[in-house]
Fold this sequence. Notes:
With 192 residues, the protein is mainly alpha-helical. The chain is built from ten helices and no strands. It has helices at residues 8-20, 24-28, 40-46, 56-72, 88-103, 118-122, 124-144, 146-149, 160-167, 171-184. The protein is globular.
Amino acid sequence: NHEMRIPANDAIQAMAAVITRDPAKPYGSISKFLPGGTEYEKLFKEEGLEKEDDYRLLLYPYLVKSFAEKEFNYGSQKANQDEKKYARLLFVTTYFIALQDYVMTKKVNIREDSKSLDPYFDNFEANKKLLELTDEILNQFFNQTNYIRQDEDGRDKKTLHNFFARSVWSPDARTTLKNIMNRMRKDKFQEI
């Protein structure tokens, strides 16, 4: 049954978005992160991911991406916002930034201590709240970053594909995302 397989390129792409904390890099060129690509050795060897128990860094980002696709229609024509059609890796990156910077009680380098993710992925209810909050964060993000890709009259200066490949992780966009998360720090993140 093909539904029970995890495509390696999808898992590596999601993992690269988490490890680099930049969804535009793997979105723009997944081949760089696959075997033989220019970033493959760096991602797997220099980052210390060759340890056998680091399956978590492939599995957990892939699970987050899959949840976003199935529950919120990221990557689908059925998405309630056009941006969501292109934002699967942004969802994964945002989720892990929220988890590491706003939910986890201590600073952890997940590349060195991937087991620190287990309690959050073992607790379905708390994890579901964080997944839903990530969707809420990105809904606000899309509304607040229109100025980056549209002119004053609402016409696209950039296609959504170009926005996600080049501008979604610009300094302005990252600041907007961080400001949204900081506003939610006291109430929304406390519930998780």
